[in-house]
Amino acid sequence: MSIRVVFLGTSGSVPTLKRSLPCVVVQSSSDQWMFDCGENVQHQMMATKVSFHHKMKIFISHLHGDHVLGLPGLLQTMALMDRKESLQIYGPKGLKNYLVSTKKTLNFGLTYPVEINEILSEGLICNQKEYQISAIKSNHSVEGYCFAFTENPRPGKFYPDKALALGIAEGELWSKLQNGQKIITPNNITAKPSDVMGPLRRGRKIIYTGDTKPFAAFVEFAEGADLIIHDCTFDDALKEKADTDGHSTPSQAASQAKAAQAKCLVLSHISARYPDADLLLGQAKKVFPNTILAEDYMTLELPLSEELL
Ligand SMILES: [Zn+2]
Ligand SMILES: [Zn+2]
Fold this sequence. Notes:
Number of domains: 2
CATH architecture of the largest domain: 4-Layer Sandwich
Helix content: 25-40%
Structural class: alpha/beta
Strand order of the largest sheet: 6-5-4-3-2-1-16
CATH topology of the largest domain: Metallo-beta-lactamase, Chain A
CATH superfamily of the largest domain: Ribonuclease Z/Hydroxyacylglutathione hydrolase-like
Shape: globular
CATH class of the largest domain: Alpha Beta
Bound molecules: zinc ion
Largest sheet: 7 strands, mixed
Number of helices: 11
Distance between the termini: 18 Å
């Protein structure tokens, strides 16, 4: 399964001509996961060919306007497009009241079920066959969460020779072993998946911080991530302002990525004061070289990991 990460909005607080408000979509061939939902998200989705009809879950980091004002418009547009697939939305306490009251005030109907899940504590918030999403409290000026999208490990490599040597011919028994089941071979011996397969392969891990200052527990939460999408609102010279407002600087984001032994860091939530944000990129790269500056419409592909567990 290929995973694509699409940056729909990379500005912080206010939009600019080049950057829309925060929104990142992670896509597989069958699912979409949206992280935050800034204004104008429909336009950004159309431009990047993100579907309005696919299976989708939305994760809201916190209830600041720049991260949630796109939601009512998106829900309404999906209804006008006659979406049928249910939509699950996760976010901090207050999310339900915000959406229910907006829908009531604006009096719009929906053509699909919407399930609103308020996050009441840290930990696992979504557990599916192929992946998990967990949350940890961020360090911002209001209650908020950072999210980890983690694919479950993939089965190890299958060795046909080993199966044949055990007297198991190609067919249904191969599939059963590949699906993790024990079987009885035609020679009447028990064979288990590990007899014919290599070790499990690590799933991919993506971290989305939302707005946050650095905090110690983040390092373990983000450990070994393939990608960390981190708040990087102000440059290093404005460290005090970042601290007061609950945001991070490039060096801080990079230090977090380094400590977590991440593979790649993306700086996002860029303040409108930086029409050219190369300054931020340079400061981060001094600490963590594999850093990318997010841009609207940027797309990253995450290949399958062959790392063994
Ligand atoms: Zn923000
Ligand atoms: Zn905020």
